[in-house]
Amino acid sequence: MNALPCTIYVSFTGALLALVVGSRSALAARVIALLTALTGFGLALWAGMNFVPSRGLQTLVDAPWIPELGIRYHLSADGISLTLVVLTGLAATAGILFSWNIEERVGEFFGLFLALIGGVYGVFLSADAFVLFVFYEIAIVPKYFLIANWGSTNREYGAMKLVLYSFGGSALVLAGLLWAYGLSGRNSFALADLANAASHFTPAQQSGMFALVFLGFAILAGLFPFHTWAPTGHVAAPTAASMLLAGVVMKLGAYGCLRVALPLFPMGFAYWQPVIAWLAIAGILYAGLVALVQEDFKFVIGYSSVSHMGFVLLGLAAANAQAVSGAVLQMFSHGVIAGLLFAVVGRMVYDRTHTRKLADLRQMPLHRLMPFAALTFVLAGLASMGMPGFSGFPSELTILIGTWKTSPWWAAFAAVGVLIAAAFTLRVVQVAFFGTTDRSVAAPAGSRPGHHQPHDFPPISWAERAGALLLIAATVYIGLKPDVLLNWITPALQSPLMQTVLKGGAP
Amino acid sequence: MNVNYSELFRALLPETALVVGALLVLAADLVLGRTRTYGQRLRLSIALALVAVLAAVWGSCIAGVDGDAFRGVLVLDTLTLVTRIGVLLLAALTLGVLTSTRLRHPTEYVAIILLATCGFSVMAAAQQLLVAFLALELASLSLYVLAGFDKTRPESAEAALKYFLFGGMSAAFLLFGFSLIYGLTGSIEFAEIARQLRGMPANTLLVVALVMVLAAFGFKVAAAPFHLWAPDVYQGAPAPSAALVASASKLAGFTLFGRMLWVGFAPAAGSPLPGGHETPGWLFVVVVISAVSILLGNIAALAQSNVRRLLAYSAIAHAGTLLLGVVAAGSVGPAPLFYYAATYGLATVGAFGVIAVVASAGRCEALTDLAGLHRRSPLLAGCLLVFILSLAGIPPLAGFFGKFIVFAVALRINGLAGPAGWLAVLAIAMSAVGLYYYLLILKQALVVRGSAERSTAIPVPLGAAIALVVAAALIIALGVFPSAVLDLIQ
Fold it and tell me: Number of structural domains, chain A?
């Protein structure tokens, strides 16, 4: 457990090393990045194996940092943060495997990538609002450069939109937290102290602060109608960055809601609870329907991410032990599945066919030309639809059952979203991978010179295979044994701070 | 009336060192300069000036923390000490950046930088209206000259003239305001003015005097609506001059401003705010100037295509946030204000330093002139990244913590019940706007590929490289360990 903070330090050190080495040798930068990510993943897994679940947070580091404002460098972990730290390690490793083919400015790419990862680890381990906020903002800027430099389709627009949404969200969070700090009259940013002080605020103040902090974090989690950054950003981003954005960065927002907004301002949450739930349901349904009619393969996955994150927010809004533990499980599950989907679309398919238009892909029998990609996508699609045996099933089921206990209406509407998810996933599986074969031998009309003919696609590399197998193994493992994670998550929800939120609706 | 001149000498050791240094620089060039090349003259002047700055730092430490000096004309407290060291550091960095710039009279330029620094240093210690005015004018007159020093460019002359006319006008306002205050209170010493103002009912004369003083200071720190000179000066002046105007002059100005308002005028009556018995009457004016600066600076910066004008509008926005620090200084002390001003100065010196180096190898006017900087000079691009992100307020850089502490203390004064709280909320909201235009700079420098004719490597002179790296390292170090600075000020 106590080695967990090293995930942060290792990532930042690796970022610096990759940056320095990258100008000399691209291969060295790749290897350093992979070793760094594996170290982080290994540390997280090791901590997970030695983890003794307990009620509340287990302190990892606690040292005074800026005594003038009562800020302490306080890191801690519980089952929720541990789940997400493991997810981060997994997504980082897979992301680096899937960006093995980056050739341009390799050192800078992996430097930014690892800096982003370091910030993400930091957010998941923070127990002080200031520390959390610092790591949260550290994770914002690398995204801009990753997308603007190495992205595709409309990348500068997508990058700027994504970063401004994130930064606008973090400005809301800052305003809400500083308001609470200013009013608390105490010289401390520790989450526990702020929660204590907040219990003396009036309901109006609490609902104001909650609205600021929750909305700020929820923007990053893709809350409807503030989700529009997500599809454009995901589509513009290079594969590894899309995997990380959908897989981990959106979870930062959901984690912030769960760790900061809800426990600090329970009265404010009670006031906004129905609004959040309906917005989450609107997001599930709207994004699902939009995904159904997309013509760009990557946009389908982008909107599906928003739809699946809606389940996370709905689970949080339902606010009982079952729904929230389902939401955390869904964060993990969606992190793995979205990574897999983006990897297939962005790396395996797009880098070879140079098209993401479903109309073009329809003319290529990809299930024969790239059987591995097709197999991976079918498995990921099944997991995404919530088939039993994959991690999507226990997580969405838990959320729906938990939500039912709070409000059957919410659960009923959200369940429609599961059907829509099945529809758009099956549609892209059919169109993109099982296209008509007869016209496929000829090059697609209007293809550029030098365009790969369908039959000479480069083979799927070892790095892609390794990354895909890693993610498939994770989703199947959690699908078969969700208890591994639920045994970590459930005790964390028994902590006094969480109980102030969860008492509503739980049996 | 017995006057202790040895005490005065000790209190003014840093200024003495700077003036002697300026004279030595001129004399050395007179004696040795005629036979030397331009580069040798520049290097010799800068070396002598750096020695003088170092001596001044040593002098500040000797002068130490001693309370009132010379019958209360000067004050030697921790704020004086750190402000002096701050402006000396910023001046030294400006001198380092200067190694990349080519001007016709390098020696005179260096000497005038030292004289301006002398003015800043007195501003840090002044607590009497007359000394404050003299220090401000010494600094301002030097800066007018520095702005017009590049005789090859008409923009430089335009900048100097504009700066001088606006500055002369504001000096007149300031002097008028000071004379009214003297007439009202019969004193020019801050402490005595405060004693006289206590209990004095609000009257028109006092209001006029305070508005005059605030307008003049608004000009000095480039706060809206007195900011009109700033974009032209930042654009037209040689880059090192702009660096000095934007950094050391701001730091010294805000120290003097905060001290004058809270030591001298704090008991001024006439607050239009509800429950305003404890809040001085001028506070509302400062709040309005601050809000206008934050709004105008951030919004106008969005439309800029010239990198220096963009930095000028960003400076106006930062002046607004610094004024929020002035408002907060009354109840929490000057530490947040100083931290913000000093780290802002570091980032600005750095940004203008990068501009100076890029300009020495071609042009650096439009944002697109920075295109492909990451290929032309990775060092410059990396330093620019640190400076601009610090200005934007991204952790772990010092600019982030500066904003954070100013907002935190502003909200701690009275929550959202007072104007400071709402001002902080406005500033937080506008910081998201700010990130947009800062990213536009970084996009050119780090993402866009340069055109073919702008792809040659940029040579970075050693002095400039050291100055930039030191500034960047300080921004990172102070951002991670802000207590190192906050602890210095009691």
Answer: 1
